[in-house]
Each structure stands twice: as C-alpha cells, then as structure tokens.
Amino acid sequence: MLKILLLLLFVGFQLQAKEKFIEFSLATAELPPYVTLAANKQLEGVFIDMLDKVQAETGIKINIFIMPWGRAINEVKKGRIDAIMPTLWSKDRAKFLVYPSLPFYRFSASVLIKRIEDDFEFTQLSDISPQKVIGKTRLVLVDNEFDRLVKHGELSVYETTKLDEALLMLAQGKIDLVASDGDIALTTIKRLELEQRFHLFAIHQDTSPSYIAFSGQFAHKYDVDYIMSLIDNALKHP
Questions:
Q1: Residue 185 above 50 pLDDT?
Q2: Domains of the chain by range and CATH?
C-alpha cells in the first residue's frame, strides 16, 4: 500500500512539473561537437540533443541563441537573456551569474597543444616560461591554476574570438601553445585537417563541472535549483 501511495505521489509530482510551464532563453557559443550551427541553420550537437530531451521530458521550453562568448556573457549579465551555457564556476562570474547546485555537463580534461616539431614537453603549468605565448579563446576558462598564473603574469596569453584562430596561429608559428577543452580541441583540429601538425598534453586528469548559469533577474523570479533538478532528472532517464 505504501509503495502504491509513493508511486502516486511521484507521478503527481511529475505531472505537476510538466503542467507548471517554464520558459527561458539560453545563450551559447558555437562549440563543436557540443553546439554546431549546420549549413541549414539548424542547431546540432551533444548539448542540443540533451536540451531537446529535456524539453520533451519536462515541458520546459528553452530558446537557444548562438552568439560569440563575450556577447553571451554580457547579454546574461544585463538580463536580456536568462541563462548561459556551458560555463565553469569562477569567483568573478558568480558576482553576476547564479549557479545552480547541479552541473549540466562535465567537460573532459583541458589540454595544451603544441606543434609536432616543437621540443616542448609539458610537466606542470608553473614550469611554462612567460616567454611562451599561449593562445586561448577569449573568456573561456581553462583551469583555476592556469587562470591564477595568468593573473599574476606568470603565463603569457593571447586571446582569440574562436579556437580556429588560435590553432591556425599555432600552425603558422605565430604563437607557441594553445589551451582548450580536450574534446573541443580534437573536434576543431580534425575539422581544420591539422591532425598531423599537433600534439596534445592533458593539463590535468579531472573532469570539470560546467553549468547552465542564470541571470540575477531570472533567478530572482524562479528557483533555478528546482529547474536544474528537472533538467538533471530528465537527462538521467534513458
């Protein structure tokens, strides 16, 4: 009897969740293989498939906008868009973004990329000379230690708007290294047909939790932990 009652309560909760209409706008950059704008202008990729499943399972409506990362951050900061993904937690971003308790996705290890002919061998970030210029996509977080060293002038970074630019500069010898998420790096290198030009080093072995972070205005009106619990529950179901 107790099991039946619990089942009815669970079903009731699920129906209530679907009946309570939730809609939010979401900004993201084009990040193959996670988010890709296809030739027919349709959105594709790992994250798009995940969000399609969330919308089908929960009834939450998510309006996705593709834009450069810097603009995405600013639009959410100003409250013109409700949320942004994928974003790692940082103290500076937490001043204007509201992070739910649950992450949306765990990224693979960040990597350093070098030219095959370069004799550089990676040991640890603090051993890299400030004379070496590291390319990185603007506003994309790589690693807490990496960001600390950059802030204190112990690493030299050249920021680009897209990873493609940094990788092409590396191939041309204009910079010494590139830092990126591993999966994004591998996908981009393959698309640029530069697989034979580069070697990758894992910066660390741990995965990094990434979030759908919300604007302060949206979080003031809605319980973002509740929304994220619905999203997480939908993604866990086969």
A1: yes
A2: 15-106+208-236 (3.40.190.10), 109-202 (3.40.190.10)
- Listed residue (41, 71, 237, 91) closest to 161, CA to CA: 71
Give the span between the Cα atoms of 131 and 13, in whole angstroms.
Answer: 58
**Backbone phi, then psi, for 33, in 5-degree steps?**
-95, 10
Helix (H/G/I), strand (E/B), else coil: 85: strand
Where residue 158 falls (left for φ over 0; alpha for ψ -120 to 50; beta otherwise) is beta
pLDDT of residue 139: 74
Q: How far apart are CA 192 and CA 103, in angstroms?
A: 31
Distance CA 155, CA 47 (A): 32
Q: What does the pLDDT read at residue 38?
A: 86
Q: Is the pTM of this model over 0.85?
A: no
Query: Tell me, what's the pLDDT at 2?
Result: 52
